[in-house]
Amino acid sequence: MFLKDISISINKVDNEDKCSGKAKYVADYKLDGMLYAFTVRSSISKGNILTIEYPELPEGYFVVDHKDVTGKNIVKVIFDDMPVFTTGEITYLYEPISLIIGPEKEVLTDLVKRVKISYQEEEPLFDWTDSVIRYHFDKGEGLKAFENEEKIIFDYETSYQEQAYIETQGFIGYPEKDKVTLLGSIQCPYYVKNAVIQALGVDEDKVRIIQTTVGGAFGGKEEFPSLIGCQLAVAIKKINKPIQLIYEREEDMLVTTKRHPSRVHFEAVIKNNKIYGLKAVVGIDGGANIGLSGVVLSRALIACTGAYSIENLDISGDVFKTNTVPNGAFRGFGAPQMFFAIEMFFEHVAKTLGLDPLEFKLSHLAKQNDYTSTMGIFRDPVLMPEMVDKVIKESGYLAKRAQYEKEEFKGIGMSLFFHGCGFTGSGEQNHIKAKVKLKKDKDKVYILIAAVDMGQGVKTSFRKLVAHILDIDIERVIFDNPDTDFVPDSGPTVASRTMMIVGGIVARAAKEVKERFNEESFVVQKQYEQPDYIKYDEATFKGDAYPAYSWGVNVVEVEVDKDTYQVNVKKTWSVYDIGKAIDERIVMGQADGGLAQGLAYGYLEVMKHKQGKIMQKNMTDYIIPTAMDMCPMETYLFDNPYAYGPYGAKGVGELSLIGGAPAVAMAIEQAIKRKVFKIPVTPEYIMELIDNG
Amino acid sequence: MAKIKFKLNGEFQEIYTNPSRRLLDVLRDDFNLTGPKEGCGEGECGACAVLMNGEIVNSCSVPFANVINKEIITIEGFSKTKRYEVIKDAFAEAGGVQCGFCTPGMIIATESLLNKNPNPTDFEIKIGLSGNLCRCTGYNLIIEAVKIAAKEGEGLW
């Protein structure tokens, strides 16, 4: 009954519960005798704690700190350098020191205020001078391509971006004999589980992690929940009672991970009106801990050529440690920073050479079988020329571009971009080793994976995928929120990997279930098998960094108010190649939502720190788009099936965020007839550019 | 502490409590109505929206004292109406639901808008939704949902 095109949309399976308010998010659970945990934080950015004096605690109130950590006092992330609770050294403002736990929130608020801490303060570091990770790679002639050549040089800067999920971070948890169970708003149940096992120093069957309905994540609930999950687990182990640890908005904005601010320096050597050699020097602010910063940097560096082929490269980058809030995962993961910089650079180089930017870009466009920046190969067809034609046709780009050259305060911009789907390099094979299970029991099939539906529709698309392959009604396919006691580790819900990688394994398992469908009940387990051609050396940045690439083109039209310099985005046109949509309406939701975040990253969302303190601490200070800011968005999808993705699907979640910022920045650049070098392009920055001529 | 009488989802209620408590906390903690969500705690995001005498309010910013003798309808109460069915189906059709955390508030905002203006223009819809933040959808799909609801629910408002 499903033997029609899988892309045709169906109703999302969780619409009913989410509309009626029945869907349960972490704050909606109440456990008998549940206590609340509030966090005691540092009031300095760098130094050491000399003394801590806690107020007298009423009966039933507790303090939990590093002394209670029974395992290793380090949160297990990719790079293990973040303590569960500090042992005394302070590396950023509001670093967690301890939890105060008890039954009454008002009492806890008061107790936290009355904690007296004395410090030996040191001079905090906010400049980007302390490099803790440095990568370098080259291609072709490398640096030699630049010797004795004239160069075109420009520098770019991007700012923080806050995920601003509407549901803040949180867990509740409870003890059960010698086992700790946590329910939380998370993207990666097994990241939390493995971190808690290490922090408690217990066997893996003593920790259970259950995902509650997630109210938005966008990368913000990738690694950060491991920190508070460990803290809460330590507290539950000590106090032996159910406890809730949920952040209020202000705390969430001040202390959780954000998109890394970046600086990109480009130099280009030009031969025959093309970029012959590209040199990039990239810096990102990791904040006080390294965490995922190295992986973010490598994704940024690999994207250094943008959607183009450049023969000779000399690429380097640093993660700088500063005494600021640690930065981490955010949809796009280094790519939005780099694509902003490289798209602007192509625009600016073309203008410097007196060439048309779009023609200049198209003359560099990567083609099938071209080498990537890391000497991998773009193995699948690259449909970008057709996609650009389509976006030009739909948007009237050429005529508008020519027209707005003659007008003031109107502009149109086009960005070309890709996203490497899945983990970088051999991450899937070497680190994640994803496993999935399908269980058939009588007339039902159960999907047992650790993938999280955080709004992107995994519950619907996976049930649809399995139902489609088995040719059975979707009601017969069951997919509950992951619970680590029942699902194998299919990896984290990140890196645009869920449908392409996990979905690919699930599809293989489903085909086996189909063959054995007459059997009453059985389980099929499958593991990720890396395509043979993926060979990548992480040390030298050589080889195929990604198994497949999704591609996109965004056109954005703006008007800038000539008095206030407010940017008004008029309309957007987008074309994406994501292989194959498993559900078109879900993909359109990802397309709109990602672009909204990308556009806002480019012109609207301002977040800064002052002496280590984040200045935007709530939704009033940190402006994300409202319905009033939105414009009509047209989106078109091109099918281009990827052999190892289910029905040809590639990644979609991050792609749609990447092109928004450069496209809106280029449109503003045309509108104000001044080169734009940093985002967000705020009215203040526009004024500065106009005033400086 | 005070005794406060009000009507909640069609039933009269009387509770003895601190009148300075937030309406949101009373609904969630005392009545276990967890459809209204806390997103920001300062009246900016609209996830906690409920109807007070038919008008949309952010329940995180309403002291319980202000509720005396008023009628409060939360998403739990509203979801029993025909209007809700129309709006819910419209949200499904348009793809207006992603993470769902803003959705009950968005539906309350839609009801509040259509109640006053059964045939809103795009611009009026944007104004009507402007007090409710959504980080997932980029709003167009929600705006589309409101348009579908207005059309399909003709005569209901």
User: How many H/I helices of chain A?
Assistant: 17
User: From N to C, what is the helix and strand string of chain B?
Assistant: EEHEEEHHHHH
Report the average pLDDT across residues of chain B: 98
Number of domains of chain B: 2
How would you describe the shape of chain A? globular
Tell me the structural class of chain A. alpha+beta
Give the termini separation of chain A.
65 Å
Name the beta content range of chain A.
25-35%
Specify the CATH architecture of the largest domain in chain A.
2-Layer Sandwich
Give me the oligomer status: heterodimer
Approximately how much helix is present in the residues of chain B? 25-40%
Stated plainly, the CATH topology of the largest domain in chain B is called Ubiquitin-like (UB roll)
Q: Beta-strand level of the residues of chain B, as a percent range? A: 15-25%
Question: pLDDT below 50 for ≥5 consecutive residues: which ranges of chain B?
Answer: none
**In the CATH hierarchy, what is the architecture of the largest domain in chain B at level 2?**
Roll
Envelope shape of chain B: globular
Distance between the termini of chain B: 39 Å
Radius of gyration of chain A: 25 Å
Can you summarize the main beta sheet of chain A? Answer: 7 strands, mixed
